Amino acid sequence: MDIRHFKTFKCIVEEGSFSNAALKIGYTQSTVTSQIQQLEQELSIKLFEKIGRNMVLTPLGKELITHTDELLETVKKIESIGKNDDMPKGELKIAIADSLMSYKLQNVLSLFRQKAPDVSLSIVSLNCYVINDMLVKGEVDIGLLYDVGTHKESLTSVQLTEFPVVLVCSPLFEHEKADFSTPDQVINTSLVINEPNCIYRRIFENYLRSNNITLNNTIELWSIEAIKNCVSSNLGISFLPRFVVEDELKKNKLKEIHANCSDSKITAIYSYHKNKWISPAMSLFMQLVRENFESK
């Protein structure tokens, strides 16, 4: 069997189609199709079937994903034998929660580039639930995220630190008149926040529900900077990690609202699949992450 065929199979699964996989690995689509046909012949199974216009995995094709991941991890280990571990090489795929990417990881990424210039670093910024799913499927090597309580048996997670979360508003907002601690009330303002699976949005919305507090509406944005700009313009309030609004609080662009949820905290972690081979690049990156958070 040709290892390249398994790499092509994995790429199709990750990219979602034969044509996207061909673009990613630099093959023609006919070459990708031929490699999969050869792999199917060697294994005597059908990996994909055509449903409408789409090629989808068969049950046996889905079963092969785990074995392919294990095989390619073993190949990586074999390829590393005899290589100089002092200079990491290869590829490293990382998924990072947006707020950590924007405010906490620049120093780590800069140091990693200096220490591992030969590593091809791929980074995506996603919500924590998607990152967990990608780690389980082996689509990324390391995830830097918040603990959302969905502990996966297949993942190893290391706690880094806790961050307080703060309720903020514009200096123009009459926050003295807005009581976010008394239950059973309607408050005339909007919640400006990230998408529904954002961990700190979930914490605040659970707090509102448990106290039967209702706001006018929700303004859902994907950019933390856009959220802060809307709040400072008095379009609503928000509930964010303190470290993302520290500068605005110091400059009086935002004000803190004290409520019974003001002691809430979120925990930053890094995770990786238990079956993942810890390459020199992975080891270095995780070391830099730990040192960065320990020094704060």
From TrEMBL:
MF terms (GO), sorted A to Z: DNA-binding transcription factor activity; transcription cis-regulatory region binding
A Pfam family: LysR_substrate
SUPFAM superfamilies: Periplasmic binding protein-like II, Winged helix' DNA-binding domain
The keyword Lipoprotein appears for this protein: no
Positions of the HTH lysR-type domain: 1-58
Bilayer-spanning residue ranges: none
Keyword entries, A-Z: DNA-binding, Transcription, Transcription regulation
Protein family membership: Belongs to the LysR transcriptional regulatory family.
Protein name stated in the entry: HTH-type transcriptional regulator GltR
Organism from which the protein derives: Clostridium chromiireducens
Gene designation per UniProt: gltR_1
